[in-house]
Amino acid sequence: MGINIEVHGLKLSYDAQPVLEDTSFTVGRGDLVALLGANGAGKSSLLRCISRILKPTAGTILLDRQELNQLDSKEAARKMAVVPQEATADFDFTVEDIVMMGRLPYLGRFQKEDHQDHEIVRRSMEMTGVSHLAGRSIATLSGGEKQRVIMARAVCQQPEVLLLDEPTANLDIGYQSMLLELAARLNREQKVTVFAAIHDINLAVHHFNRFILLAGGRIMAAGRPEEVITPENIKKSYGVSATTYRHPLHGVLQISVVRGRNQGENHDGEPAVHVIGGGEEALPVLELLEQKGCRLSVGPVSAQDSGCRFAHFHSLPVVIVPPFTSMNGAHKEEHLKLIRDSDLVVVPPIPFGEGNLSIFNEVETALDEGKPVYIIDLEGADRRDYSGKARALLEGLVGKGAVVLETVDDLHAVVCGVGGAENE
Questions:
Q1: SS3 state at 243
Q2: DSSP states of 180-211
Q3: Do both 185 and 222 map to the same domain?
Q4: Angstrom distance (rounded) from CA 56 to CA 20
Q5: Which of 192, 197, 205 lies closest to 162 in space, CA to CA?
Q6: Same domain, yes or no, for 284 and 413?
Q7: Cα–Cα distance measured from residue 151 to residue 304, given in angstroms and rounded to the nearest whole number
Q8: DSSP 301-340
Q9: Distance (Å, rounded) from C-alpha 55 to C-alpha 292?
Q10: Residues with Cβ < 8 Å from 195, sequence gap 6 or more?
């Protein structure tokens, strides 16, 4: 495939303040590359050097083995198109006029557009979904519509390289996805190399296959998502603690900023809560309690359970059992210890089958030892009971003092009562 873009020893300074320092990398022909980094890392400055808006202090940029600064403006525009961070409209041109500007690099002086140029404009507007706006003034469009028009102009240039300078920064989620899907389509169907500065990492990993991470004007990491998007790199570049995981639906690598507490912080006043079981039904309970600052434990759950993933994500104590099996003696002891270490126990509105009925023994022990137990949505237990026995067991717990809550939201008052006013 070959190399499209080569950057060697690039440096850039504003008023003697270095912005890019000794930046070097290559982008292969037909690559989909996302440029990542915190605000001020140098992403936009680097894109503007490549697009010739800014002149670097030192270093060279090659486009198809030619020095970029040796290309005339028309030749550069035939090879490379730019979609800036924000579309501006200083003149009252129609959408079709704006898109037609993408053909200027191919026209001689005083040369008029021909049928082929108009056909390319038509296809470009169709591809970007702005055909219905052709006669509208660019000044009357929304921000997302303007950005699509600028994208149509870039498509109309028929470039080898498409540079996107944080094009989704001011767009809603629908326009963000549409714009990046379009860039991926151009890459897939027309082999256009796409090089984009993106501020949303989770959005970027859906659409790009190679990443370059900047920090302090230098390249910290480059390569595949697993090589670049790591907790260590995120901490160094963005200054926040984060965890990475595979999304359970589409398997794409994702990051989440850890909203954890500071190390060494005293949490003695926070209630310790053990949440029985897991699954999707337990997640709202876990999320509410985590937001309230509770010290949580979870189980029993299988390793594939969403409750188990929640526990691992937040580094919580968890009892893990093999799927579709009952707890053995060691599991029961581990479960009972978590219950005894807690201030209260919550039974979420989870499904019940023969495999998890034994949890009622440990919950009953908690009640016998004076531990508060809260059962959520007792009335709905029948539709979640695949054993035919859970409703009677739950009512037995209520007979021993367990408190019934109608909804998950009712836990708010319970937690505040246990943890004190600081949890309000």
A1: strand
A2: HHHHHHHHHHH--EEEEE-S-HHHHHHH-SEE
A3: yes
A4: 9
A5: 192
A6: yes
A7: 42
A8: E-TTSHHHHHHHHTT--EEE--TT----HHHHHHHHHHHH
A9: 51
A10: 5, 27, 31, 33, 35, 47, 50, 161, 162, 163, 164
Residues contacting residue 111 through CB under 8 Å, at least 6 positions apart: none
Alpha carbon 207 to its chain's center: 11
On whether the CB atoms of residues 97 and 118 are closer than 8 A, the answer is no
Q: What is the CATH number of the domain that holds 320?
A: 3.40.50.450
| Burial status of residue 99 (CB atoms within 10 A of its CB: 0-12, 13-18, 19 or more) | buried
pTM above 0.85, yes or no: no
Residue range 350-369, pLDDT digits in tens: 888 887 888 888 999 999 99
CATH number at residue 95: 3.40.50.300
Render pLDDT for 213-233 as a digit per residue (tens, 0 to 9). Answer: 999 899 999 999 999 999 899
- CA distances in angstroms from 131 to 122, 125, 147, 152, 182, listed in the order given: 7, 5, 14, 10, 15
**Distance between CA atoms of 94 and 381, rounded to whole angstroms?**
62
Residue 53 maps to a domain: yes
H-assigned helices in 385-422:
390-399, 411-419
| Residue 310, token pair as written in the block | 């929640």
